[in-house]
Design goal:
By secondary structure, this protein is an alpha+beta fold. The chain has helices spanning 12-36, 50-59, 71-78, 90-94, 110-119, 159-164, 193-202, 234-238, 241-250; strands at 39-46, 64-68, 101-106, 121-124, 136-138, 141-142, 144-145, 152-153, 169-172, 175-178, 182-185, 207-218, 224-226. The strands form four sheets. Strands 1, 2, 3, 4, 12 and 13 form a six-stranded antiparallel sheet that branches. Helix 1 packs across helix 3 (71-78). Mean pLDDT is 88; it is low at 245-255.
């Protein structure tokens, strides 16, 4: 009988060695990019979504380099003290690496970078724990999907899922229908798992993916400039954990 692959024993020393190698490779790559580019920006992400961050990577592929996640390794690569810093002034940026943040290396003028990221905002679906930005009420009548324009009624085979999410629907000529309006969520209140699922099913986007630039290091002067007015709110950053971990695992050393 063939030996099951599931029974294969993996040496933890090999795993630890691989992890060390990955960290060392990341550290070295961050330092190489610090030597290569004129500017290094520290950024954070609001309502993190892997797909949108990958879009940012793709659009800046030829003119920038992005690192996200592994904050402790990135800070070590830059150096957190004047004695340890890889290049003059980098320790002022490294000491600000806390939480889910990233580094953006580029030669593009600061005004261009600020304008681009201020404009790049992508609507997306809310997740559990996000604060509802508005009250959403589904009117009496056919339950409509808002993914398309104009909206279309839900197909009959979706009714069990709608009922599972709290809608008191009935079938009217093969279309899930409400006899009375249904409040999905209320403005200012935290969104529950069921509400998040229903909002996505209906097609209502309530949050926005955006990148907040916090500080900029200039290789020519060694100065670090703090960026005002682009702070990411606690609610926007709260949902980043799962996606940030996925992005770190998939693209630990950027593209």
């Amino acid at each position: 009988m063939p030996k099951s692959k599931r029974a294969k024993i993996v040496s933890l020393t090999k795993v630890a060695k691989k992890t060390r190698e990955q960290k060392n490779a990341l550290l070295q790559e961050v330092q190489e990019n610090a030597d290569k580019w004129q500017y290094c920006w520290l950024f954070e992400v609001g309502n993190m979504r892997n797909a949108h961050l990958k879009t940012v990577r793709r659009l800046w592929k030829d003119t920038a380099r992005i690192f996200f996640g592994r904050g402790a390794v990135m800070a070590k690569a830059l150096g957190t003290t004047p004695e340890e810093e890889h290049r003059p002034g980098l320790h002022k940026l490294a000491t600000q690496i806390k939480g889910q943040v990233g580094l953006f290396f580029t030669d593009s003028p600061p005004s261009e970078v600020l304008e681009w990221f201020a404009d790049f905002q992508q609507p997306d679906f809310a997740r559990t724990g996000n604060t509802a930005t508005r009250t959403v009420v589904l009117p009496a009548g056919p339950v409509m999907q808002q993914h398309s324009t104009p909206p279309e009624p839900f197909p009959h085979n979706e009714e069990p899922q709608l009922r599972k999410l709290g809608l008191r629907t009935r079938m009217d000529r093969g279309v899930p229908t409400l006899d009375v309006p249904h409040t999905v969520c209320e403005k200012g209140k935290a969104i529950t798992p069921g509400q998040a699922q229903l909002l996505k099913l209906v097609g209502i986007k309530m949050v926005t993916f955006k990148v907040g630039l916090r500080a900029r290091w200039d290789a020519a002067t060694g100065e670090v400039t703090q960026i005002e007015g682009q702070e990411i709110g606690a609610d926007e950053a709260a949902a980043a954990g799962e996606d940030a971990a996925d992005d770190e695992a998939e693209e630990q050393m950027s593209e």
